[in-house]
Predict the 3D structure of the following.
Amino acid sequence: MTDSMKPTVHSGEEHQSLRYFLSLLQPEEHLDITARREDYLLSALVEQLEQEKRFPVVELTDPDTGRRTICNTFASRDRLKRAIHHVVDVEEQADRFQELRFVENAPVQEVVVGGSEVNVLELPVYRHFEGDAGRYITSGIVIARDPETGRCNFSFHRMQLKDKNRIGISLHSRGDLWRYFNSAVSQGKDLDIAVVIGAHPAYYITGASKIPPTQDDYSWAAAYMDEHAQVTMGKTVNIPVPAFAEYVLEGKILADVSEDEGPFGEYTGYSTSRSTRNVFQVTAITHRRDPIYQDLVPGFAWEHLLLSQFTKEIILLNKLQKEIPGIKALNMPKNGCHFHAYLSMKPQAKGQARQAAMLLFGLDLYLKLIVVVDDDIDVFNEEEVFWAVATHVQAGQDVFVVPRVLCNRLDPSSVDGMSDKMCIDATSDPGEKPQRVALPAAVKARAAELLNRKENAT
Ligand SMILES: Cc1cc2nc3c(=O)[nH]c(=O)nc-3n(C[C@H](O)[C@H](O)[C@H](O)COP(=O)(O)O)c2cc1C
């Protein structure tokens, strides 16, 4: 999106909203609870549900105010898949959706609070873990414009409430926002941002994605929605914001201020004070008349991990398939907290599984362990993956380690920002695969039918 683009006015439709997505959920995917805001409560609810292997959207309604808070929205692969239009190659499809549609009377600006009235401490923001430095906004999508091209970028950043108009923010993934911030600083300027809380899942999935600098992140969200993004201009910043969002916080990341931020419970399951220590000064809060506050339980919670992993799985798989024949599926399992991947493929030549693993390590610096399996192994079934390891791997020849490669510094075991990368090649060489035990399909169907009949009779 560039400044030269002419805004077009549209009446707008609610289906580009979080509330529309929530309205489509099956009743069993939704857990309604009436309770006042209480620190740690959301995290404790989600932890308990995960232990019971349940992943509903949790909605808390405050009995005094009627205000709604939701979390766990993205804790299911199936829900994430249903939330977006099927996209084969998002990078390619995004090019059709460069243009934004500007909406009049955008719901996200039904209420506008600016100047001395701004008070972020009044937002229903939760403290998540005992080690946290305070209450954190965890589901804010930060929208900023590239100071050089004007394109918009979306990314997530932990945000600690400090004062009425002051929020501590960490740009520790050192991605596009970090680059924009430093570019603004070099010109002696603050960086304007708009933080969206509560929006259509396409915005969340886009915020978790690494997008080429030549593309505007709005075009990716639009490709996932399969229609142009409907926006309105910020009230105090020159940044378009999703018209049907719940809340937007507008303001700037200050160029010349640095303050302690953290500790905070990170995706590794450990608390960390590692932070770029930036400060976000809030100039306005806009929201709907009855806004839904969206939270995302951080730490080792499934939603926190899955949102990134789901987007990586789509994008990385697509890149691998473009380069190497026979690539089938990719899973980043929860227990690997971004550091492990299982890849299935049908190698066409000896050594090709290792080539695929090296490409994957090159594409994602977080990865430390890649297990490559044959295409008849379901990478989403860990039991099958490690059965393949048990029956195909001789460590002396099928495991290789590349020492001291760039990694994510939030890994507590990393050394000087580097870690060793390990690949386990559990594929069989072409033509040398042992015979798997098998059953005739017709008898399997007959067995299922007999068991079904038995179950219905009881
Ligand atoms: C739920 C969630 C929370 C995140 N929290 C942070 C954070 O606190 N700080 C940070 O720098 N990156 C964080 N990230 C990572 C960035 O948002 C992510 O890497 C994003 O893709 C950046 O992409 P970009 O470089 O294209 O802007 C988080 C990601 C997710 C999905």
The pocket of flavin mononucleotide is lined by residues 153, 155-158, 170-173, 175-177, 208-211, 296, 304, 307-308 (CB under 6 Å).
